[in-house]
């Protein structure tokens, strides 16, 4: 195994001298915390064990107990945990997760899904040595169902590590997983447990690829469809670790720090356990997925000696780096390949109502607005539970039956954001998009993010319909409006997109190679030439084709297209190209991020929130919800 940690053995190591340094740092009133953290984070774990022994030999005291006495809070937890041998650290984490009130399933999942056979055996032994009980028996007593069964399978540490792959068995396992889930009513969980809990990593990667060819679904999507609760989360963690352990930990670290508050136990556990194994790869995966260095996220989210210790374990800031480590380059290439193979299931939240009666709905809406006060709940219930096509029938029937304009009545009876939301739902999609484009450009200032979001994510047909609706409503073309409100290359990019002439169809492999080479070559050109070349490809090629282009770009440049855009471009041009790349990779995920940004921090960007919720409700809002939960749902450590 090749170790790519940030903590390595210190040269010219003298455990007795280190023991004396630590003793002096804790002697007298107060303690020299900086000396303690600098020494401990510059020694590997094996050397720290020697320092513990030398400390007791020289001073007759227990170093860990002295550290506990002198230090406090999260800093104390971090330093003391660094002093434990890896197996004993894992054993304590698992013990803390299953003892006391409640169970920390998240910790159980993270640790047991990610350890190899040797680490698992050493942890089980350390648990017995420390707590005098059998780890398997304690897990059985504290968990239940299929979740318990999979944990017990993982605890055996018996995964095939031979590296030998039987092609026939790969195909059979893929077919068995399909038969156990997507192909039948109900799920054969035992089959999932047997295959995912025992087959080798190399074998399972091939099984996942074969499964995707058979079903046009990723194994992750099938698990989300077929399983639930802690068992679903455990199986997803196993799959993520099979694909890439560093990427799995990058996700866990991001979730531990985003949003309000920090899941410090998770942060400490991962930074310690991976610091000597694969922290360099985790850093690169973190940068690849979240466009921010792990170093800077820790720096922004923590403070004091705790922060300094974590940053020492992290080992460096990758935000200025351009190229990948080998592991991360392979992951980036594979991610684009998976994006191309996966047929994303787009699921709406609003569907046509059964037994629809437009006349009854029109009468009910009139009743809700007649007299003193307005029955807003009744209006919401009707409008939000009808498809857009049904709402158009209601508009027409309202006028035919009552001789009144429903839109005018709604505007007079409702106010503020509720009015904007209900009116948005009553417009046709093309009318709504045209109105959103108009709002983004009217008055002082321009909402460039709205312009980008709409033009990047709409199909050719949707853009053509929006153009027609804009012309009808505002007596000028949308292209003319864009040209009068924006300028420079950003204006040219928007004009290109508003033509609604993006190529359609699958990737042309030979042309994708050529496009990728042109983009890679453009990275060495003058800034303006580079941007024009990116525009000529990103604004015209089909999304399936661009997926292949971005994948091959990694191969030709050893860089990720997102990182290049972030590093080499700025302002609205950068934001537009970035939105295209994100939409090509996973459009529901792009919208999930837009929703998160609309609601995070002080205040809410109500216009963005309404725009996305209305426009995606009959297309993929349920899928967006799932992406939002996966990326932005914070759980305690």
From TrEMBL:
GO terms for biological process: apoptotic signaling pathway; calcium ion transport; mitochondrial calcium ion homeostasis; negative regulation of sequestering of calcium ion. It is found in: Cytoplasm; Melanosome. GO terms for cellular component: melanosome; mitochondrion; nucleus; plasma membrane; vesicle membrane. Keywords: Annexin, Calcium, Calcium/phospholipid-binding, Cytoplasm, Repeat. GO terms for molecular function: calcium ion binding; calcium-dependent phospholipid binding; phosphatidylserine binding. Belongs to the annexin family. A pair of annexin repeats may form one binding site for calcium and phospholipid. May associate with CD21. May regulate the release of Ca(2+) from intracellular stores. This is Annexin. It comes from Takifugu bimaculatus.
């Amino acid at each position: 195994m090749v170790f790519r940690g940030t903590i390595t053995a210190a040269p010219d190591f003298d455990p007795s001298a280190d023991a004396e340094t630590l003793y002096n740092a804790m002697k007298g009133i107060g303690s020299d915390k900086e000396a303690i953290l600098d020494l401990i984070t510059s020694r590997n774990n094996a050397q720290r064990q020697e320092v513990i022994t030398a400390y007791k030999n020289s001073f007759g005291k227990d170093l860990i107990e002295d550290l506990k006495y002198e230090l406090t809070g999260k800093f104390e937890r971090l330093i003391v945990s660094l002093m434990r041998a890896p197996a004993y650290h894992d054993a304590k984490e698992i013990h803390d997760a299953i003892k006391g009130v409640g169970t920390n399933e998240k910790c159980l999942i993270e640790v047991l899904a990610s350890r190899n056979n040797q680490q698992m055996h050493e942890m089980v032994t350390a648990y017995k040595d420390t707590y005098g009980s059998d780890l398997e028996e304690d897990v059985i007593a504290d968990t239940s169902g299929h979740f318990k069964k999979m944990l017990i399978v993982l605890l055996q540490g018996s995964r095939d590590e031979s590296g030998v792959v039987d092609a026939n068995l790969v195909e059979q396992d893929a077919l068995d997983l399909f038969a156990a889930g997507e192909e039948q009513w109900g799920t054969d969980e035992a089959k999932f447990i047997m295959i995912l809990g025992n087959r080798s990593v190399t074998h399972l990667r091939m099984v996942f690829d074969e499964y995707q060819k058979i079903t046009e679904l990723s194994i992750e999507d099938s698990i989300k469809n077929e399983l639930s609760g802690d068992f679903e989360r455990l199986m997803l963690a196993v799959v993520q670790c099979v694909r890439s352990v560093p990427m799995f930990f990058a996700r866990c670290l991001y979730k531990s720090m985003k949003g309000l508050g920090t899941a410090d136990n998770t942060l400490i556990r991962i930074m310690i356990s991976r610091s000597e194994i694969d922290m360099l790869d985790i850093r690169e995966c973190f940068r690849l997925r979240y466009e921010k260095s792990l170093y800077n996220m820790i720096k922004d989210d923590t403070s004091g000696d705790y922060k300094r210790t974590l940053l020492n374990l992290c080992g460096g800031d990758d935000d200025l780096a351009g190229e990948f480590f080998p592991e991360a380059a392979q992951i980036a290439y594979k991610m684009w390949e998976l994006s191309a193979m996966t047929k994303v299931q787009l699921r709406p939240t609003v569907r046509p109502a059964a037994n629809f009666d437009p006349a009854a709905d029109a009468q009910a809406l009139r009743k809700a607005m007649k007299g003193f006060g307005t029955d807003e709940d009744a209006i919401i219930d009707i409008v939000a539970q009808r498809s857009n096509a049904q709402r158009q029938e209601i508009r027409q029937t309202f006028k035919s039956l009552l001789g009144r304009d429903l839109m005018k009545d709604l505007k007079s009876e409702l106010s503020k954001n509720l009015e904007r939301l209900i009116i948005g739902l009553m417009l046709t999609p093309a009318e709504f998009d045209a109105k959103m484009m108009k709002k983004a450009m009217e008055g002082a200032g321009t909402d460039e993010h709205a312009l980008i979001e709409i033009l990047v994510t709409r199909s050719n047909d949707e853009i053509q319909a929006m153009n027609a609706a804009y012309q009808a409503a505002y007596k000028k073309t949308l292209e003319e409006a864009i040209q009068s409100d924006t300028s420079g290359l950003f204006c040219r990019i928007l004009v290109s997109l508003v033509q609604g002439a993006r190529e359609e169809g699958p990737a042309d492999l030979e042309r994708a190679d050529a496009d990728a080479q042109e983009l890679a070559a453009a990275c060495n050109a003058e800034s303006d030439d580079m941007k024009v070349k990116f525009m000529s490809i990103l604004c015209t090629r089909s999304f399936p084709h661009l997926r292949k282009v971005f994948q091959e770009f990694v191969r030709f440049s050893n860089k990720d297209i997102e990182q290049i855009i972030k590093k080499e471009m700025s302002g609205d041009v950068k934001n537009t190209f970035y939105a295209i790349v994100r939409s090509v990779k996973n459009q529901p995920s792009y919208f999930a991020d837009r929703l998160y940004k609309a609601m995070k921090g002080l205040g809410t960007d109500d216009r963005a929130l309404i725009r996305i919720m209305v426009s995606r409700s009959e297309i993929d809002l349920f899928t967006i919800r799932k992406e939002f939960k996966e990326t932005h749902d914070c759980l305690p450590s």
